Amino acid sequence: MPVEPARSARPLSAPAPRSAAESAAQAEPAASATPVSPAAPVPAPAPPGGRAAWLAWSIGVSVYILAVIHRTSLGVAGLDAADRFGIGASALSTFSILQVLVYAAMQIPVGLLVDRFGPRRVLLLGVLLLSTGQLAFAFSSSFAPALASRAVLGCGDAMTFISVLRIAARWFPAAKNPFVAQLTGLAGMGGNLVTTVVLAQALHSEGWTPTFASIALLGVAVFALVALFLKDSPAAAHPVVQPVVQPVDHRPGPRPRIGRQVRACWREPGTRLGLWVHFTTQFPGNAFGLLWGLPYLVEAQGMTRAEAGGLLTLLVLSNMSFGFLFGRVLSVSARARMPIVLTVIAATGLGWALVLAWPGGHPPFWLLAGIILVMGSNGPASLVGLDYARARNPVERLGTASGIVNMGGFIGTMITLFGIGVLLDALSPAGAGSYSATAFRWAFCWQYVPLAVGTAMILRLRRKVAA
Question: Does the pLDDT at position 300 exceed 80?
């Protein structure tokens, strides 16, 4: 029999020896199959929405409601302020113009603060400034301290709306943000109703100092609510522990400089389009409701203060209704943004043309009610500008972009308030105690200057943005 050659005894489990090159070649694909990037940030989870989101928004919006109550408190106390401080109509209007000026000037700084420190801290600072300013106003007995206190109040007011929008962006899915923004504006109008109904009555029954001091003390409860229960984002409310793979250097890179942050926002056409949308749509209703509406209805149209107050309440109710309607439409389709904006601009311009062209300068009641209903759409339409900025900027600079956009309407309001006031003085006889219907008629034509400029800029920038 032939004998087989002897086989080397080798354990069955031992692999055959390989060269170092073969081992490296085989190990390389395994290493590259699961690349590890220690410096790569963990992607943030999508905003959850739901009850937790609505709770966070409700806490944030309570600060905005408080801010609107503070902001509009002087609107029902104008005559009382004139008597208390011994001032005339021109000095009285300085309160409103200064407050709007401070609000507009603070928008970009507030946006940067929100991006840097988060909305919760900014809201807490806003409540402190609101309460401090209103408390000082309650005890002021002369014009200069009262004016300074309204400036402090304007700083606190400026910190609320942008912060609430940033909370909504972190807690709600992107498709829901337009609707939540409109609800925020609607809630603010609820604060306006509190001022016109509750505060006006309290002022006449309780007096100046107790009424304004009580409003200031409301800030204590709101401050505690925000400090104890509000979280900047779902991640802050429910932190997720990430597994540690290996020790790496987690030191953050340098934060973008303020100027670079602002320039990056401004270079984005969506931010500029949003600013001009806010500018053009907000100022007619804002200027009318903030200062010139009551004098126009009483002095030019011969209404009683009660009748004029009823029409101004109609402005608030119309604003709330349009806010809910636009929010529902925009949550369904973002393509409705520009049609809404252009329709509101056209309706406002046409409505005022009919009112101002009416023979004798005394349009009928139904036409006055109609233009006030139309101006109720101005505020909700201006929020579309914030939608453009939110859709075109990354989340880390949303606060800055929102601040730039939110300046627009208040700059337009200042231009309109000042222009109408100058024309009323120029068109009225020296020493006249009131303004005629003719003077109001020509002075209100000034509105078409910012309306035309803003519309031209919207149409120009619309071509650069897929609107």
Answer: yes
pLDDT > 90: percent of the chain: 43
Please classify residue 49 by burial: count the beta carbons closer than 10 Å to its beta carbon, then call 0-12 exposed, 13-18 middle and 19+ buried.
middle
* pLDDT for residue 255 is more than 60: no
Q: From 386, 324, 316, select the one nearest 162 (Cα to Cα).
A: 386
- Closest C-alpha to 344, from 272, 407, 277: 277
Q: How far apart are CA 380 and CA 337, in angstroms?
A: 11
The widest CA-to-CA distance across the chain, in whole angstroms, is 140
Q: How far is C-alpha 286 from the geometric centre of its chain's CA atoms?
A: 14
Instruction: Evaluate the CA torsion angle 366, 194, 128, 262 in order and state its sign.
Output: negative
The full DSSP string for 325-374 is HHHHHHHH-GGGHHHHHHHHHHHHHHHHHHHHHSGGG---HHHHHHHHHH
Task: List pLDDT tens digits, range 372-408.
Answer: 999 999 999 999 998 898 888 887 788 888 889 989 9
Contacts for 457-461: CB closer than 8 Å, 24+ residues apart:
457/272, 457/276, 457/279, 457/280, 458/273, 458/276, 458/277, 458/280, 458/341, 458/342, 458/345, 461/269, 461/272, 461/273, 461/276
Q: From CA 161, how far away is CA 405, in angstroms rounded?
A: 12
- Beta strand spans in 30-115 (E): none
Residue given tokens 């354990």 in the structure block:
11
What are the residues whose beta carbons fall under 8 Å from the beta carbon of 36, sequence distance 6 or more? 245, 246
Instruction: Output the CA angle 87-88-92, nearest 5 degrees.
Output: 80
Pinpoint the alpha helices (H) of 393-447. 398-427, 437-443
Instruction: State the pLDDT at residue 10.
Output: 42
